[in-house]
Amino acid sequence: MTYVRKVATALDQLVNALFNGWPDESISARAWRWHRDAQRNWPRALINMLFFWQRDHCYSAYDNECKRRHLAPEYRKTVK
Question: Which of 7, 11, 25, 72 yields a CA-CA distance of 20 to 30 A from 18?
Answer without folding.
Answer: 72
